[in-house]
Amino acid sequence: MPPRGVQHDGGLLLGLDVGTTRIKAVVLDAAGGERAAAAVPTPFAVAAGGVEMDAADFEAALSSVVAAVGPDRERVAAVGVAGMAESGAPLAAGRPVAPVIAWYDGRGEETVAALESRFGPDLARRTGRRVRTVSSVAKLGWLLDHGLAPPKRWLGVPELALFLLTGVEATEHSLAARTGAYDVIERAWLPSVAAQLGLPVGIFPAVRRAGSVMGRISEAAARRFGLPAGVPATIAGHDHLAAGAALGTGDDDLLNSVGTAETVFRRTPTAPDVGVALALDLAVTIWPGGQAWGVLASAARSGLVLGGLAASLGRSPAELDGLAAAGDAAGGPGSAGARWGAALAGLAARTAAAGARVADLLGPHRRLVVFGGGSRSLPWLAAKAAVAGVPVVRSPVAEAAVRGAALAAGVAAGWWPSPGDGPVPVLEAPVPDAPVRGGGRPPGTMGGP
Predict the structure, then answer these.
(1) Predicted pLDDT at 331
(2) Which of 146, 229, 310, 380 sits at 20 to 30 Å (Cα–Cα) from 293?
(3) Domain range holding 360?
(4) CA pair distance 302, 374, nearest whole angstrom
């Protein structure tokens, strides 16, 4: 229930999550009830150089998903935005001047090489992760190398959504930490990295606390999106971490986000040893709010793997889940169900190995909390339970990131002090027969993904 003494006046909260494949929206009431939900495809498309989306197409998709929640948007008291990290757009004269390059697009190798040559391993110890083409600085460097005039600002995709809604240029800690130009321990931009690109550090916006009022819906956005003008808007953070606030979990829980890319991560109230984390092939980030840290491990691009396998087998994932659960005995080892079950088991082993590395850094975790689209697969949950070494539980909210964004909106509206203080769902009971042996390294798993 909402805190006593807070007046909601029948208002609602709008959460937006800009994911790799879909842009999602949800409208919650003050008790956490879902009033409306919608999703539209994220308009990435294959281009000559790789995968990207036009900023105008992104704005149109954002407008479409807000419109799809229906008349409830007219009663929204606050808006929260979560989304993918790294991808973004440069701005000049108040408008985007280049397409948004997908985070998984490999462009930017020359920039990565130049950064590694200039800074060596010290940069990874400052930013919490090895320099990769995934980073925002690699994308920005590639654009500059290919004719882009120096822009005034770089905005990641959630920040671009905030800009379209409010006209304000701002970011928050967990997204800043993924740019490749932010010190995750000191919580400050790195001027030397921007200078390596030939830009001032002011290319990056001010870092604000997730849930704070970062701007208010502008008159132009009110007309464009059908939202009330003047209501507050905030950035909830990187989608994985914003989801954590919607799950009702603790610091001793290992969270497993299962979407296009599968990640395990954990919150820690004290700064971890970044050097040890890097040696374990982990990334260190800042938790939304800026008062804690997160440790992340990549498991696999599970959604892409299973989507490709389902297409090759000519069946839907739901059909293949049914075959795998039934054993598909009639088809033999090479049957569709057997191949699907083997893929689920292989992915579960990678998840367990990634979780074990996190445990090597932070100590044992008490359970694995699974959320996201892949959490709907019961055979996959069972495969995870067989190797996790701890109880495996599932969030009843599959789209946790967009709910986390709505809860952050509640903070901006003054309804509760933090997203975790908002109405969070009760986690489902552990998957049957999950072994309970502590959160260390499962037998038979390797030390890397």
Answers:
(1) 54
(2) 380
(3) 250-394
(4) 9
List pLDDT tens digits, range 175-226. Answer: 999 999 999 999 999 999 999 999 999 999 999 999 999 999 999 999 999 9
Q: Measured on CA atoms in the order 202, 204, 207, 213, is the torsion positive or negative?
A: positive
Distance between CA atoms of residues 277 and 282, nearest Å: 5
Return d(Cα 329, Cα 327) in angstroms, integer: 5
Instruction: Report how far apart, in Å, the C-alpha atoms of 42 and of each of 54, 76, 405 are.
Output: 11, 23, 17
From 198, 217, 240, the end of a domain falls on 240
* Torsion angle defined by CA atoms of residues 359, 362, 363 and 368, in that order, rounded to the nearest 10 degrees: -50
- In angstroms, how far is CA 65 from the centroid of its own chain? 18
- Burial call 165-189: b when 16+ CB within 10 Å, e when fewer: bbebbbbbbbbbbbbbbbbbeebeb
pLDDT at 8: 64
Cβ atoms of 409 and 13 within 8 Å: the answer is: yes
32 and 158 together in one domain = yes
Residues 221 and 266 in one domain: no
Is 422 a domain residue?
Answer: no
Co-location of 108 and 184 in the same domain: yes
The total number of structural domains that make up the chain: 2
| CA distance to 167, 331, 380, per residue, from 309 (Å) | 43, 17, 15
CATH, residue 268:
3.30.420.40
Would the CA dihedral through 264, 270, 271, 274 be positive or negative? Answer: negative
The C-alpha atoms of residue 432 and residue 95 are separated, in whole angstroms, by 52
Q: What is the pLDDT of residue 52?
A: 97
446 part of a folded domain = no
Name the band, by pLDDT with cuts 50, 70 and 90, for residue 300.
confident
The span from the CA of 323 to the CA of 321, in Å, is 5
Cα 133 from Cα 142, distance rounded (Å): 10
Q: Are 406 and 28 spatial neighbours (Cβ–Cβ below 8 Å)?
A: yes
Strands 392-394 and 34-41: unpaired
Please state, in angstroms and rounded to a whole number, the distance separating the CA atoms of residues 132 and 208.
Answer: 25
